[in-house]
Amino acid sequence: MNSQMLTTRDGRGLYCRRLGLVDATPTVVFEAGLAGTCSYWAPVQTLVAKWAPTVAYDRSGLGLSVPDSQPRSLTRMAQDLGDVLDQLDGPFVLVGHSWGGLIVRLAAAATPERIKALLLVDPSDEACEWAFRPSVRRAEQVNQVASSLAARLGVLHLAYGSLLDALPEDARAEMRTNAFTTAAMRTRAAELAEVPDGLRMMRDHPPTLPDIPVTVVSGARGMTKTVRAALNKAHRHRAEQSPRGRHVYASESGHMIPTDQPALLAEELRRLVI
Q: What are the pLDDT digits (tens) for 32-45?
């Protein structure tokens, strides 16, 4: 594994983990969900690195990356991803989980000439009307308060035991050290504050993707039947927007498909890369 710091246009350092064949193309770049560090991509990244170059990174204020003094808008996060790509060898296959699905779509639309394909993993989606409900915002705020308190008490990691158990030892140690801190929860609050505006922006001004394969992988568990049905309907819609769209169900997974079914994601990436 090659760990290094990449730099944004305004000088912030972003930590990344690089694995895989140095001279092969395209490069597979992993974008985490809301307040997620690069560590939870390790099960998928390790598999894909056997046949492709891979990069997973921590967004500003998460993991080992430098915090951002500016609001963490969806546009700014996509610009940061663009800065990461500027320092890597393309073309790229972008992989976005949850909130990261919106980030990679924006980044792909900004520089379509260097994007070969997208893999959206149980992504947040503006086509899901459920995501705009005030009750969802209230639940997010309650969860944020509880998570911040647990971080201050040093027990937040206990809520993520099954996720940590699914990681290789080095990624598990990295995540235990960096992902459940009070600093990480401050960044989580900053990202969470931008969710409503980010969703509205995507709904009102949808980014135009290039004519590339877009695969959307939906979870099958972990939510109420009503919410899961609404989200997966949006996922089907998202796949149908691409002439080469593909919608796949991760039948054994909840929202955390990267750790629940990493082999499925690796196989979908093989379809997109090879």
A: 999 999 999 999 99
Rg, C-alpha atoms of the chain: 17
How many domains does one find in the chain? 1
State yes or no: cis peptide before 91, omega within 30 of 0: yes
CATH number at residue 49: 3.40.50.1820
Which residue range is the domain that position 154 belongs to? Answer: 2-273
Note the pLDDT tens digit of each residue in 85-143: 999 999 999 999 999 999 999 999 999 999 999 999 999 999 999 999 999 999 999 99
CA 132 to chain centre: 20
d(CA 213, CA 66): 33
User: What are the contacts of 134-142 at 24+ separation with CB within 8 A?
Assistant: 137/195, 137/196, 140/192, 140/195, 141/192
Tell me the whole-structure pTM to 2 decimals: 0.96
- Of the candidates 77, 88, 10, 96, the one whose C-alpha atom is nearest the C-alpha of residue 53 is 88
